[in-house]
Amino acid sequence: MEVRNLRYVLEVAKQRNVTKAAETLHLTQPTLSKIIKSLEDELGVDLFDRSSKAVKLTDSGAAAMPQIQTILQAVDDLYVKLADVSELKTGRMKLGLPPVVSTVFFPRVFAEFHRLYPNIEFQIFEEGAKKIELLISEGEIDLGVVVAPVDETEFGVMPLIEEKLAVTLHVAHPLSDRTEIGLNELRADPFIMFPRGFAVREHVMKACQQQGFDPKILYESSHWDLLAEMVAENLGVSIMPGAICNKIVNPRVRTVTLVEPVIPWNLAMIWRKEKYLTYAMKRFMSLSREYVNMIAAGSSSSLNQD
């Protein structure tokens, strides 16, 4: 049963005349009559009484018309809904962001996306990178920002940002006037770190162990600004992404380049490889990439507008 044939039936019922309906539908009268007869054979009933000049609905036809109208309305609604989604008039997206980056890179992207597509709903999950990978694997969220590398056999990957970790310490620290610090020089200092599950912590712990020591962790927090304030109180040192360090304004905190080893902090946007990428997801990814490129170019211009 073809949907367009149901529309033909509805037009015949409206015109009460096959010839007039055929003219409206830009069909020949024999063609329309053949289509109606074929549909009646398929349904096993006569929809129209053709015994008089004016075509009338049979009892079966009268019973069928409301159902046909409902079907056609549902099909029309389907096309409208799909058009709304494809044109980003409506939709929902679940996004995983580590607290380390959520306040640094993405507020601008969210603002621009909302301005362009105000009816797209966001649900944001603030979790560590490893938890975000798990949530994506389980299908709980659509997109996530994590620290690369990740398993590219499981995830689709779009590289975003290439950064390095840096040391934050109190201005009274003996090494605060240095331009570079080796990780081994901090082995006696208490560390203020992100909690387990955060990729930054894992990279720092691994680097420390490669230097031959396990850092003494004094405090943990998932909020970079709280870590910075603890450093400002001279409670210990912290190692954070350079982009985070650039947001610290407390004059009692110094940021020094970390060397020996240099610890990369490369962000990527990931999704489950077999997952269908919606129009909204693709557009959000595109805006994120535009913003990162704009930062890299040192531009202050606005994001691209469709």
From TrEMBL:
Residues 1-58 form the HTH lysR-type domain. Keywords: DNA-binding, Transcription, Transcription regulation. It comes from the Bacteria. Pfam families: HTH_1 (PF00126), LysR_substrate (PF03466). SUPFAM superfamilies: Periplasmic binding protein-like II, Winged helix' DNA-binding domain. InterPro entries: HTH-type_LysR_regulators, LysR_HTH_N, LysR_subst-bd, WH-like_DNA-bd_sf, WH_DNA-bd_sf. Transmembrane segments: none annotated. Belongs to the LysR transcriptional regulatory family. This is LysR family transcriptional regulator. It comes from Paenibacillus chartarius. The lineage of its organism: Bacteria, Bacillati, Bacillota, Bacilli, Bacillales.
